[in-house]
Each structure stands twice: as C-alpha cells, then as structure tokens.
Amino acid sequence: MGRGMGSACPFGFLLSRESSTAEGLNRFGHPMKPPIIDLEAWSPSLNDWKLKRDSFREGLRNRLGHLPMLPREIHATCQREEAHGVGVAEKIVIDNGREMGIPAWFITPRNEEHPGPAVLWLHWHGGEYGVGKQEVFEDLHTPSSPAQTFLQMGWSILCMDAFGFGERNGRDPESGGDFDQEGEHTLAKHFLWQGSSLFGQMLWEDRLALRYLKQRPEVRGQPIFVAGVSMGATRSQWLLALEDVLAGAVSLACAVRYRDLLAKQGLHRHGMYFYVPGMMEYCDLELILALGAPRPHLLINGASDPLSPRAGIDRAVGLARTVYALHGKEENLKSQLFDKVGHQVQEDMWNEMKRWCVSVQRPHLQPDGL
Predict the structure, then answer these.
(1) FRET partner for 368 with CA separation of 20 to 30 A, picked from 46, 252, 289, 325?
(2) ∠35-303-319 over CA atoms, to 5°?
C-alpha cells in the first residue's frame, strides 16, 4: 500500500503522482492523474485512518451535490397488504417530501413482537425501467427471488423504486414526462442543473429508506444489511460507506474501479446515473470499500464481466483490505470472482450469498468499533 509514504506522513495521500503504466492511460493515451485521496500512496495507522475517515466521507457526500437534510422520522402510507409465501407483503409509499413519494414493498416473515434481521434490497438497472421494486418478487436475473430467499432465512426485506424506475418511470416531475433511457437522461440533466446529481438523489432516498426500515417494529434493534445486483451493488457499496447503522453489505455483479473502466474504454457500459461529478478526481472504488471497514462486505462478480474489469476489482479490494487489517478484520472484506462468468448472477454465486448471510446475522456483528 505504501510507496515510501509511511504513517508518519498522514497527509501523504494528498501528494500528486502520475501513472506511467498502460493500465493508467485513458482512452487518448494520456496518463491518468491519481485521485486526491490515493490509498496507493498512503500507509496509515489505525489512528491516522480514524482521524481522516469522517472527512473522507464528507468528500464523498460533497461530490453527490446539493441534497436535502434527512428527516429524523420517516413516514409511510400502507396501500395494501397481502400474503406472500411464508410472510406478509405490504405495498407502501415512503414520504420523501416530493409530490409522488417512493413506492416500495416491505415483506416480513414475522409480527412486530419478534423482530429480526432485515435487508434493504436495492434493485438493478439493466435497462428494465418498468421493473424497479418488482425485482424483489422475480427470479429472472437471480436463481430465486430476493423475497423468497430472505424470507426463508427469516429476514425482512424492503425494496423501493429508484428515480425513473417502476411506478416512477416517466412520472417523477423531474423527468419531464420522458420514459426509459430518455427519462434517465432528463433526470440526470435536471439534477445537474440544480447543483445535484441523479446518483446523489438516488442515494439520498436509499438513506431515507434505511431510516424507515430501522423504524419498523419487525426490525427494530436488529441488524440491517444492504444488498443488490448491478446498479443495486453500486448503491450498496456507497451506502455502507456512508451509513454506520448498517451491519454489512452484499454487492453482486458490479464493482467498478473508475480508472480501470476508463482504461478499458468501458464508459458506455453504465447508465447515466453512474457518473458522479468529480469522482475520479477525488477517489476510486478502494476508498468507498475502505469506508465500510470493519463491517462485513461480500463482493461477488463474474471474472469476465466487462462492466467491472477484474484487475480493478482485485486492486480496489486489495487496497481496501489494508484498512480492514488496521481493525484486525481483514477477513471481513471478501471478494469472490467466478471464472467464465459475465454480468450475471448464477446459482453458485447466489448460494454463496446465502451462506454468507447466515454466517453474519449473529447479533454480535452489529456495527461497532467504527
């Protein structure tokens, strides 16, 4: 991790250096400058890390743009309730202070007298703008539906429509009535003009949903995890980086180190939501992963996924593990790459997630030692 920059120089990460490797060239052949927060050039002690962690988080939040304050109490309206497998599904609308609200599903295997673990499931993109939260009931891209999988483990699950997806496709006022990809682009342009970002707005609502989930009597006082596939994985990584209340995360089929994606000329592979102004200038994936330390985080990816270059995953995880190691919890950041697998979730990958969830749901793994 350190390149002649020991912990005696706690601000060494601010020094600039230029990459001269082919991997560090952008598509025009020019060297890519290192980020402001450069974990490749900084070998912190645990005390160094703790002193800077909050400022690193603030830097991430600043890149997301102007966002409203999160309310202390989150309100939601239940539209209907129905039986679902071994549990109960509530169709709700979470109040986000906007005209439409956030349509969501909350599914639980228990009543409020017996609270248990929960997962905030963040849906994928995949160009499937009409799906959104309904992903929680589907098995089109996962071997079994998230709802069925987590209910069978005794977990509650919350899944909501992100901006531009599901019931919100073309209906959020900020989309200007545009649907699908045009709607996503209009949303991104609207928020950029307002000094914000589409990803920032999505993540703000994810944080709102997390607070709502924490309030639920079926969950209160129990560990809450975040998980998702593809776009949901990216949101999960960020949410773990920003929210101490989370007990851990599962990221499936997406772990993008920006410099490696750029070197592979892969910018076209991700939707407009993905691009946050100033992110490559500020940091890369390794910092986002490191900010989740020491909590458990499982990353599962296909080794041949063009959306997440393998070299970038290995590098980011390796650098982030050095921060986990400072806490004595290096094993808590686990990355599994499946050979000859692309941008998908196969049964063995899904089973690995289930095994991991069972292993980390013990109460003593609730967030601490941050």
Answers:
(1) 252
(2) 30
Task: Spell out the residues 6+ positions from residue 32 whose beta carbon is closer than 8 angstroms to its own.
Answer: 18, 19, 24, 25, 26, 259, 262, 263, 280
The pTM is what? 0.91
Domain spans of the chain, in order of start: 12-63, 76-277+284-360
Pull the structure tokens for residue 292.
Answer: 């989740």
Place of tokens 């952008």: 26
Q: Which amino acid does the sequence have at 279?
A: M
* H-helix or E-strand spanning residue 102: strand 102-108
Domain 76-277+284-360 has CATH 3.40.50.1820: yes
The pair of structure tokens assigned to 221 is: 């006082």
Per-residue pLDDT in tens (0 to 9) along the chain, 370 residues: 333 333 333 333 343 344 433 345 555 556 688 999 999 999 999 999 999 999 999 999 999 999 999 999 999 999 999 998 889 999 999 999 998 999 999 999 976 678 999 999 999 999 999 999 999 999 999 999 999 999 999 999 999 999 999 999 999 999 999 999 999 999 999 999 999 999 999 999 999 999 999 999 999 999 999 999 999 999 999 999 999 999 999 999 999 999 999 999 999 999 999 999 999 999 999 999 999 999 999 999 999 999 999 999 999 999 999 999 999 999 999 999 999 999 999 999 999 999 999 999 864 444 444 4
- How many CB atoms sit inside 10 A of residue 178's CB? 17
Element containing residue 83 per DSSP (H, E): strand 76-84
- Our CA angle for 37, 264, 240, nearest 5°, is 40
Question: Which tokens go with 212?
Answer: 């709502």
